[in-house]
Amino acid sequence: MQNWQPDPQSPIVTGIGVATAFGFGKQALHDALYAPRNVFGVMRRPGRQFPDSSSAFLGAELPEPPDLLPKRVARTTGLTGRVAVAVIDEAWREAGLSELDPQTIAW
What we know:
Blueprint: E1 19-20, E2 23-24, H1 26-34, E3 40-42, E4 58-60, H2 71-74, H3 79-94
Antiparallel strand pairs: 1-2, 3-4
């Protein structure tokens, strides 16, 4: 491994975003690891129950993501999309990309 060189085509991770049942962001996860609380229970979101209410699904449900999208866009964006935006936003800011000219950021 002495002569290892990074592959210029390999991605470089410079920021990370976190979404858990404890909340969004690394701080929420950190706090939960040091002051654990129970987040398991009956799933409350629509579609996570039997139609006849005969039984309940149990699990750890994500809280509502932060409002980062314009209201017009958020209205038609599902939970998965809003969670992805929240995680990407945290990673983007942690990487310092919000301070750069968007024209200088390469994909």
